[in-house]
Amino acid sequence: MQVRFGVLGPVAVWDGTGAPIDVKGPKHRAVLARLVVARGRVVPVGRLVDDLWVEPPPGAVGALRTFVAALRRALEPDRTPREPARLLVTDGPGYSLRAAPDTVDAWRFEEMVAATATMPAQQAVDSLDQALGWWRGPAYAGFDEESWARPERSRLEQLRLQAIEARAGAHLALGRAAAVVPELDAHVAEHPWREEAWRLLALALYRTDRQGEALAVLARARGLLLDQLGIDPGPRLRRLEVDILRQAEQGETGPASWAAEQVWADATAAYDRALTSGTRARLESTVGLLRTLAVTGAGGLEAAREQRLAAITAAEQLGDPELTARVIGGYDVPAIWTRSDDPDQAARIVAAAERALTALRPGSSDAVRARLLATVALESRGTRAARGPEAAREAERIARRLGDPALLAFALNGVFMQTFHRAGLAPERDAIGAELVALGTRHGLATVELLGHLVRLQARSALGDFAGADGHAAAVDGIAQQHERPLAGVFTAWYRALRLAATGASPPTAEEAYAVAAQRLAGAGMPGVERGLLPLALLCLRVWHGRPARFDDRTDWGPYAPWARPLLLLARDRPAEAAAALHRIPEPPRDLLAEALWCLTGQAAIMLDEPVVMARAAAELAPAANELAGAGSGMLTAGPVREHLDRLGTALGRAGGPATDTAAPRRTRGRTGVRRA
Fold first, then answer.
1. β-strand 94-97 against 88-91: which pairing, if any?
2. Contact by Cβ (8 Å): 472, 454
3. Rounded to the nearest 5 degrees, what angle is found at the Cα of 544, between the Cα atoms of 542 and 547?
4. Which pLDDT does position 651 carry in this prediction?
5. pLDDT confidence of 663, banded at 50, 70, 90?
6. Measured between alpha carbons, how far is 272 from 74 in angstroms, rounded to an integer?
7. 481-491, pLDDT tens digit by residue?
């Protein structure tokens, strides 16, 4: 039976029967808590010493080893003296805690809260009640002032408050408004800066026919925010106040929906009267509608994709280069995935943008030119065309000179898409994401902020920083909920499956998590993401853990079939066909999954004893030696690149092939056994 760990309150440990385990004194608990915060990552001995003592005493390292030894005896009392530890392990320069994800209450809590987002209301209430019941006090109680604990304590507390509010919202959905009023009243008194809590309290009062009290609550919230913080209430609070004042019926569609529908009907009628069919202004404004449509969900994204090229074609037929440029460049929908949903359409859009750039008159707007260049950079993603990086750099230069934040965000999105010319560039992409987050926050560009957090989620995952990635995932979910961006949840669902796989979950558990995430992706309107991703994730997991690549013959591998085929044939004991398939493999596209595909190629080459291909794979992977293969996608991983490099180095040594250098990039010239695209 598994040992369980508790950090939602004082740090505690229980054995498989639920009996508490004595983990000795405060320093022992501090070591354990610090390793839980690390989420399975190695904490070097020097870092642990610095975290345990403000001024480390002489012999601090020896004392730390004593604490670790005592913890190991407490956690694994039946382990023999020479048997390696399974939970608190020595790993390279330090220690790590190899706890299963479901054995730490904070990790279970986070997973449970995330899962309730798609549950029916009653199931969500039951699950949130259970999850909130795991709290025994403030997270990491007793370590309030420790710098290493503060960020995690704060993050978990924010998640707890979100869970309380989500539970209240689920109760409201079930018609239990009166029951949640007392709890929400106490909640806003204790946490007066949480606008969602004020909104829920006012809504609960309104639904219990206490309209005056609901308006008074909203007035209190407005006064508090203005007097204490100098800010106006957010749009959801303002909208609820308008709805209550209208005394609209709070039905299934709700007063907010009624008001929005009326505004839409009035505005579209006025638009049709003012702008006749076929006018240039009408065509240009259509792009704004398509841009909004693209972020509303699967149906909207597909419709926007279908109509975008038609709008460009119509603009070109009017013979106005400036209009065409604005129609092309006005579609600045953020993009996070490096494989196009429709490569043929992307190529046609690039061609149209290049024609527009050529046709622009001298003196044309630099902003329009930059938008066309950013479009070229974005739509050239995943290709080897030299024009993509060149256009990205030029768009960025213009945008920085003009000082337009929205334009700079569009240009940076293009720069991001062109940072895949070699492995190991996660830090560079992380910096781009950080600038996007700052731009979005500073200028109120929610979609830009969302994009920045997604970019950073990917980059921090590649670097194995899951504590950092968790924060970005939570930010994505919060912004997506507030601004109705449902597709963002697809990426955070996959991220959580990746995190399970990368932080020690058993392969069957990780495979199940990937399968659940794939359900969110099915029908999301993103074929460039969806096709072949689930089997690829499972194959990467199996290769990492040395398990056979056995799959159903009907599995749709999508664009990843060439890299899967040699391993699939080897699993069926068909080495000759596997070798032929290996030599037909093209170079991976320059995208988020390139490292993972090189790992698959390298593993097949090892199994087939192909030293030239092994050397090529090692050279391509070497710059990413300190990253997790494929985790830069934020969706899957083939494990640490270092492990794959070690396997390749060992195999090359046996084969008498060229030595590998994992410290710096290398390129193998000549025939490689991997076809250049």
1. antiparallel
2. yes
3. 35
4. 95
5. very low
6. 75
7. 888 888 899 99
Q: For 246-250, 274-278, 581-585, which range has the lowest pLDDT when averaged over its residues?
A: 246-250
Locate 472 and state its tokens.
């970005």
The DSSP annotation for 334-397 comes to ----SS-S-HHHHHHHHHHHHHHHHHPPTT--HHHHHHHHHHHHHHTTBS--THHHHHHHHHHH
168: which 2 tokens?
Answer: 């209240």
Q: How would you classify residue 636: left for phi > 0, otherwise alpha for psi between -120 and 50, otherwise beta?
A: beta
Q: Is 344 exposed, middle or buried (0-12, 13-18, 19+ CB in 10 A)?
A: exposed
Asked whether the beta carbons of 602 and 641 are under 8 A apart, the reply is: no
Asked whether the beta carbons of 197 and 165 are under 8 A apart, the reply is yes
SS (H, E, C) 526-588: CHHHHCCHHHHHHHHHHHHCCCCCCCCCCCCCHHHHHHHHHHHHHHCCCHHHHHHHHHHCECC
> What is the SS3 assignment for 204?
helix
Reported residue count of the chain is 677
Contact 591, 381 (CB under 8 A): yes
SS (H, E, C) 318-333: CCCHHHHHHHHHCCCC
pLDDT tens digits along 361-373: 888 899 999 999 9
- For residue 292, CA distances in Å to 296, 305, 601 come to 7, 12, 40
Helices (H), 98-234: 105-115, 121-132, 150-173, 177-190, 195-207, 211-224
Give the Cα-Cα-Cα angle 311, 315, 316 (nearest 5 degrees): 120
Sorting pLDDT into bands at 50, 70 and 90, what band is 265?
low
Q: Which amino acid is at 640?
A: P
* Residue 117 DSSP label: G
Q: Which residue shows structure tokens 């040699």?
A: 566
